Amino acid sequence: MIAVFVSVILAAPPTTSAAADPVAELAAALAGGEASARRRAAVRARRLDALQQQALRRQAEALAGAWRGELIEWARSADTVQTKIEELHQDWEQRATSLRATIDKPTAAPLNDLDRQLADVRDRYRRLTEAAETLAGGIERMRDRCERLNDAAKLIAAVGGPSLPRDWRITSSRFRKATGLRPDRRAVGIAERVASAHRAWTRRRAEQLADQRLAGPEREVLVAVNELRVVLGRRPLAIDATLLKAARHHSRWMATHGMRHIEDGAGMTNCWDRARHFGYPVVKAIGQCLVGENLSAGPPVAAAIVRSWWVSPPHRMNMVLPIWSDLAVGMHAGSGEGPASTTRWTLLVGNKTLPDNYDQYAGLKVGTE
Known about the structure:
alpha+beta; 13 helices
């Protein structure tokens, strides 16, 4: 009966103005979840006459009963969800770590094995983020329900009469117990970190796909590289306008000179020199720009271009190394016939400062691949 009554209260449109029906106004303020409205409601409740106070109390009790019921129902499944998250996180982390250890070396590995491992890591990451969103989102909803439950108790107290049972009032110190979240479990922290990181990447992905500095195919390749990094547990990289100029320049140069890292002419011989020429800062500790470069030739299809780098150990390594912070993809559309008709691609990754883990990768000569 409570559930039906509450749904009617929440869904039914007001038939009178707020001024003519203060009970409906205060009940709506409580149900709506808007903090300032609830505070005003508690004050104004004291000004109602006896019949109005009685009606408001009934509605507040019904809402409180429904929210408490939702808390209890959610708590029944919380322990199972926490166990699932811990298992999924451990499984994904182990598989991603193993795959990163292989990719972080410019040495050959059986491609079929790498493809299978990557598909496995992608699947584990998808399942982990879905479970994390479920738990983290549930915690957010339950915190809101606890807040509203406390507000209902205050509102009932404001209109007089017996208070709600003490155990209905959920303080912050009792939140975990009320929602079945055990303090000895790591799952809550894991879920909130994973969900927060995934939401941040989702926002950045949308921003990068909408970035008008890049052509459509450039955006798609750039996002595909970042998605690969995220799935492997590496941070996504930021678009750098300076590296974008250098990447587009070299793609144009390759349209007439062929697929080469080394350009003819002074000042832009290699990717480090080109990055510096276009304004990317030199890292003093190494005396040059800290950048890496991948080249490709092929149609403007993100999956095909990223695949061309994935199958090559040094190019694969360049895409996912943890030392990078910046990224750019520059293309030059082909025209005419013969080699000039092929679209040329340049991927540049870089860092404006020397990362703490640089020594671990310093001997790989990442910029020459």
